[in-house]
Write a structure and sequence with these properties.
- The chain is α/β, with parallel strands linked by helices.
- It has a single domain (about 5-105, about 115-170), classed as Metallo-beta-lactamase, Chain A (4-Layer Sandwich).
- The chain is built from 6 helices and 13 strands.
- It has helices at about 40, 45, 120-140, 140-145, 165-180, 210-220, and strands at about 5, 20-25, 55-60, 65, 75-80, 90-95, 100, 110-115, 150-155, 160, 185-190, 195-200, 205-210.
- A hairpin with a 2-residue loop joins strand 11 (about 185-190) and strand 12 (about 195-200).
- The protein is globular.
- The N and C termini lie far apart (about 55 Å).
Length: about 220
């Protein structure tokens, strides 16, 4: 019997296979992934589609991924909790390849979209963590010998880009939005909330989210 591993960057819509499948997800907010909450939080209700049936294994921050089977073999990949886009958002770090995979937390030339359940406050905290994480990896002993730095890969568009530069640039754009230096491009109602869109000049970074999330971040200042 083969075992397969699936890692959820966030609660997703796709069907879990009937094979011997192990699904890993963030334990940061277990209630968000509860079975009775999944139809709403997976957006299945909003899209009018059937909710996939699966039971994920919830894992802690800095969880080292291993193989499943008779032998447990470290795979050299670590799960990082990066709540913000959603409460269960994660990133993956491949130590050997120095690759950071951030899912839908950020990307270039596509809107960074926050659903109603997102938090820009938490997003900033996660970006600060990832910046420190990448800085530490970039200054480690291996990089001193071969000159490599961590590369970032996102759910859309952004692939094999310098992680630190992308993280800092995305954070700077979001800071400009929160502090009023970016002008609103569009306002519309979505899922019963006022949803706003901002776009950086040149279109590198853009944001679409419930306006409430920006106001929550402004109140922390």
């Amino acid at each position: 019997m083969y075992s397969f591993l699936k890692i959820l960057f966030r609660s997703q819509l796709d069907e879990a296979s009937s094979l011997n499948l192990v699904i890993l997800a963030s334990e940061h907010d277990p209630k968000f992934l509860a079975r009775d909450a999944l139809p709403e939080h997976s957006l299945c209700n909003a899209l009018g589609i059937k909710t996939p049936q699966y039971v994920p294994t919830l894992v802690p921050h800095l969880y080292p991924i291993t193989s499943f089977g008779p032998e447990t073999i470290p795979l050299g990949v670590t799960i990082l909790h990066t709540p913000g886009h959603t409460p269960d958002e994660i990133a993956l770090y491949d130590h050997a390849e120095m690759m950071l995979y951030v899912g839908d937390s950020l990307y270039e030339y596509e809107p960074i979209i926050f659903p109603d359940e997102g938090s820009i406050v938490k997003w900033f905290e996660s970006m600060d963590y990832l910046i420190l994480f990448v800085e530490a990896k970039n200054s480690g002993p291996k990089t001193a010998s071969d000159g490599r730095e961590v590369q970032i890969n996102s759910g859309h568009q952004t692939v094999l880009r310098p992680a630190l530069e992308i993280l800092l640039a995305a954070k700077a754009f979001m800071k400009d939005v929160v502090e009023g230096r970016e002008k609103m491009k569009e306002r519309r109602e979505k899922r019963g909330e006022e949803t706003v869109t901002y776009e950086q000049s040149g279109g590198r970074f853009s944001l679409r989210c419930p306006e409430r999330l920006i106001l929550e971040m402004q109140r922390t200042k």
